Amino acid sequence: MRSAVLAYLIFFYSLFFHLSCQNSKNLAHPKKTEQSQKIKNKFSHEKIKKEEKKENFSFSIEKKNKLSFVEEHVPKKKKVKLKSKIKSKIKSKIKSKIKPVKIRKITTTQQSLTDIISDSQGGKVYKLLLKLDESKKIISIRKDPQEDSERTLFPIDEFLAKPIVLSKSSNLDVLILHCLACTAHKGGTLKLEYLHNGFTMSYEIFEMDLQFSEKIGRWQALLKDSKGKTLIKSLRLVPRTFFGKKIGVSEVLVNK
Length: 256
What we know:
Layout: H1 2-28, H2 30-73, H3 76-97, E1 109-118, E2 124-132, E3 138-144, E4 153-155, H4 156-161, E5 164-169, E6 172-178, E7 188-197, E8 202-213, E9 218-225, E10 228-231, E11 234-242, E12 245-254
Parallel strand pairs: 1-11
Antiparallel strand pairs: 1-2, 2-3, 3-4, 5-6, 6-7, 7-8, 8-9, 9-10, 11-12
């Protein structure tokens, strides 16, 4: 009996001694306990994250399954109708946001500037015509009628950039019109260059002013002389002859 009691006492004593040693270690090393607690928290946090990922993954799988179920079981006709409805709604929204652009038609007018009468061609008349926009700005210059394969229409940008050939004969430029210092809304000095002598290939220039009259609302070709300015209604080209053969233009007559 005594031996059994003694054995119990020894067991309890050893257990008490072991627990007291463990507490002393924890008190002596508080940092280790904090680190262990942190490690435990970290592991628990990672477990929570893994569980959340599993839940999200399972949810996405469930969602995909639902979509696939809908695709498998919804009839194709209904799908087409739904798609067409969605497209129509999108188009209506886009149309409501986009403002309609009004395209304004530009009205143009045409006026005669002057006539050029060529006596060397039996009194043939060439008309110089101007095409204008709403603000009476020159858009193009046209020669009427067309002669053979020569050009008749000249845009104003081209006309202001380089001389234009109005008439040719035997591959020679007979009449050249240029207005390099002019503008489409103010005009300038208009020069008619003509072949004076085909043998020597010499040219002469007849100058006139291209102006817009605010009073009558028309463009005019004016000749500066001692009397002031004369309105040019027509230009007559008098031929130059050599032994009865026409070799060029001898002079230009105004309103004759």
